Amino acid sequence: MKNWLARRWPAAAAVLLLLATVSIILNSSLKHNQRKLIYALDDPYIHMAIAKNFAQDGVWGVTKYQFSNSSSAPLWTLLISLFYFLFGVSEIVPLLLNLITASTLLFSAYYVLEKFQTSNFYKFVVLIAILYFTPLPTLIFSGQEHILHALLTVLFAHLAAKELSGEAAALRGRRAGLMVLAPALASIRYEGLFLAALVSLFFLFRKRRLFSILLGALALAPPIVYGLISLSKGWFFFPNPILVKSILLMLPGEKNVFSLLGYLVTGAYQLFFAIRHFTFLFISALLVYAWRGWEKKKFWNQNQILLLFFIGSTLLHILFANAGWFFRYEAYLIAFGLFAISAAIFESLSDPGPEIQTQKKPVLRYAIIFLSLLLISPLVRRGFLALQQTRTATTNIYEQQYQMGLFAKEFYSERPVAANDIGVICFLSNARCFDLWGLGNKETAILRISGYYGPEEIDALTFPMEAVIVYEESFVDVMPARWIKTGQWKISDNIVAAYDSVAFFAPDSAKAARLMENLKAFALRLPKTVVQSGKYLDYIGE
Fold first, then answer.
1. Residue 241 · residue 70 · CB < 8 Å
2. 3-state DSSP of 222-244
């Protein structure tokens, strides 16, 4: 084991750096959050709530009372649920799963790069780039499936490129691996279908029609089965997060050909102007592909195929999926791009050919240096910001969503409560939580998708509720007239919460009195850094 690690010190060192970085962030987060393990977003708690309810009550839903199609990463939710079923519900499970997955990603990337006859130092630099630019430590504290998505993407693309290239003998194990990874990729995130579609298309071009159809069918099977189960429960075919967070839904006005064209223009703008690290990775991949194609003149080279997979996946993602939002949606493409570009450059360095070794070696070296700088420059800022913001993000969630969850747990167990951030509330409490954003219930989603989500509709939805906990700014134009505001909590240094203040409303005066009484009882348990205001501070009950 010692000799094995010594030969592969770049991977071992990268994993040690990962563990050290996570330990530092975790220690700081625990210190600032009263020794509680807190994730940097509310969304992971949605997965944890579904996993808890499925493991304990056999209900796939954000609450234990009914089914809800609220997870766009069913495989991740199922993995957490399996651990909950075997070992009990614990907040540490997503963190441990992500640590294992991130370590596997680093070792897998090194294993592929190991075959190239380049310095171990260069390979170590690539692993460090994947570690901090993806960025793995921040994604570990996001508590979600994005690292596993990156790992499955790299493995699936690598195996597919190797099989398509014909540079090594076709192996049953490799084909079996692709057949296992295809459905897993689509189950971990629906964006996995982008790469699966590209791979299937390439096998079709390679005149391997049967295998192409088989891979495509295997990739489509999990979303289709999951969608049919959802339809049988009276929900949409696609998960609510995909429908509610769709960029097309957010486009103003009537949805037609012109709005679709505007959507495509918006995607192009995102790629080339708004998301610089995407732009530089994309351009770097194009330049490396063109440079290697000019020298090798071989389309079916393994690493050329990898580059094409990355370029195609990036284009499809930009056009049909989201990017940004705390470094996560595009994370798999950052890891994939760094891996694909590095593999292509390392192959050229390992075997540049006799002509390049003599006359063109300096040109090759300068080109690689230039491309490396081009690749790294915008990602350095991304990595720095991620490390800088992760601990603060966990504190945001602790001071806002986590306190909302504790409040609901103490005062509204098995009682109806409406909110627009439901993750922690549903995970910590057994409240009958109603989601005003639409991720956790179909009624709101239907109204939002149809465009009929105004004060009257919201009033009808929330009148049976005991309390309404929302961002007031989100409802300023659609707030029901009879909502009674009872109080407000405000946090500082906000990074990840939609707004720094969350407000408490009641649909009638009797419920407002109970809500103020509960808020006042809970007031002393809030962190001192949370600024409280509103009627409940002066409330004197009967």
1. yes
2. HHHHHHHHHHHCCCCCCCHHHHH
Q: How many helices (H) and strands (E) does the chain have?
A: 24, 6
Contact of 80 with 310, CB cutoff 8 Å: no
Cβ atoms of 311 and 286 closer than 8 Å: yes
Q: Which secondary-structure segment (H or E) carries 489?
A: strand 484-490
Write out the two tokens for 542: 């009967």
* Amino acid (one-letter) located at 285: A
How many CB atoms are closer than 10 A to CB 124?
Answer: 19
Return the amino acid letter for 268.
Answer: A
What is the rounded distance in angstroms from the CA atom of residue 37 to the CA atom of residue 27? 10
Three-state secondary structure readout of 175-193: HHHHHHHHHHHHHHCCCHH
User: Both tokens of residue 83?
Assistant: 């651990």
Q: Tabulate helix, strand, coil % of the chain (nearest 5).
A: 70, 5, 25
How many whole angstroms separate alpha carbon 281 and alpha carbon 269? 15
Structure-block tokens of residue 201: 């298309």
How far is residue 430's CA from residue 334's CA, in Å, rounded to a whole number? 38
pLDDT digits (tens, 9 = 90+) for 318-332: 877 777 678 888 899
Q: DSSP secondary structure string, 294-351?
A: HHH--TT-HHHHHHHHHHHHHHHHHHHS---TTTTTTHHHHHHHHHHHHHHHHHHHH-
pLDDT digits (tens, 9 = 90+) for 301-354: 899 999 999 999 998 888 777 776 788 888 999 999 999 998 988 887 776 554
CA angle 158, 105, 366 (to 5 degrees): 70
Compute φ and ψ for 452, nearest 5 degrees: -105, 70
Whether the CB-CB separation of 275 and 330 falls below 8 Å is answered with yes
Find the length of the chain. Answer: 542
Tokens representing 168? Answer: 């090594």
Bridging pattern class, strands 501-506 and 467-470: antiparallel
Is 444 in contact with 453 (CB distance < 8 Å)?
yes
Handedness of CA 96, 67, 420, 503 (dihedral sign): negative
Query: CB count, 10 Å around CB of 353?
Result: 11
Q: Which of 11, 70, 12 is closest to 426 using CA atoms?
A: 70
Element (H, E) at 469: strand 467-470
List of residues 6+ apart from 20 with CB closer than 8 A:
none
Under DSSP, is residue 503 helix (H, G, I), strand (E, B) or coil?
strand
Tokens encoding 210: 């049967």
Q: Centre a 10 Å sphere on the Cβ of residue 5 and count the other Cβ atoms it contains.
A: 12
User: What is the helix (H) or strand (E) element at residue 486, kind and residue range?
Assistant: strand 484-490
Q: What is the pLDDT of residues 153-205, one digit of tens each?
A: 999 999 999 999 876 666 777 889 999 999 999 999 999 999 999 999 999 99
Per the confidence metrics, is the pTM higher than 0.90? Answer: yes
List residues bridging with 417 in a β-sheet.
433, 467
